[in-house]
């Protein structure tokens, strides 16, 4: 089964998930005074590379926010899996759980089955990253079919600083069809 990949410049779909602590959050809707949002989809508690990536993101969170970009991370993990994962995470940005297969397909993510019950107990999304602009459009996106290929956060930060600078008049790229 294939899923439609989200294209650059498309409206980001309104997907509601639940944050740690039980509050709902709509992905792609900036919070805390930001006008853009970065949605980071991670594989789940079972992935040590995801834990490292989310903790690295925390170190740059303030720099992203200075650009007007808030952050939310989400996985297909259950509430119990996220609760068990939280002690390993330094993240102060919202982390949500319960991404359904239908929502993963709506986002155009690659979806994997666990290798064993020791890994996890459900299909999960491979990494995805979406930067949604103030018009609700996908400004920048990256999807991977494995945990080893993800945007380097420092380069992403400097690229978004360039894009957000009005003097650069930088359009959404990759829209030719």
From TrEMBL:
SUPFAM superfamilies given in the database record: Thioredoxin-like
One Gene Ontology molecular-function label:
oxidoreductase activity
Q: Which PROSITE patterns match?
A: THIOREDOXIN_2 (PS51352)
Under Pfam families, the record lists: Redoxin
Where is each Thioredoxin domain found? 6-165
Query: What is the protein name for this chain?
Result: Peroxiredoxin
Question: Which organism is this protein's natural source?
Answer: Ferrimonas sediminum
């Amino acid at each position: 089964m294939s899923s439609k990949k989200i294209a650059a410049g498309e409206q980001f779909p309104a997907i509601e998930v639940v944050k740690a602590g039980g509050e709902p959050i709509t992905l792609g809707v900036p919070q805390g005074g930001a006008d853009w949002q970065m949605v980071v989809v991670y594989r789940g508690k079972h992935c040590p590379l995801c834990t490292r990536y989310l903790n690295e993101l925390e170190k740059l969170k303030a720099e992203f926010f200075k650009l007007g970009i808030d952050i939310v991370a989400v996985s297909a993990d259950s509430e119990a899996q996220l609760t068990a994962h939280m002690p390993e995470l330094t993240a102060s940005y919202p982390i949500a759980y319960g991404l359904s297969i239908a929502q993963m397909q709506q986002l155009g993510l690659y979806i994997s089955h666990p290798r064993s019950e020791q890994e996890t107990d459900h299909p999960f999304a491979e990494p995805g990253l979406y930067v949604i602009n103030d018009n609700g459009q996908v400004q920048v996106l990256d999807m991977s079919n494995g945990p080893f290929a993800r945007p380097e956060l420092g380069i992403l930060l400097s690229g978004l600083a360039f894009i957000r600078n009005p003097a650069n008049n930088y359009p959404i790229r990759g829209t030719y069809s």
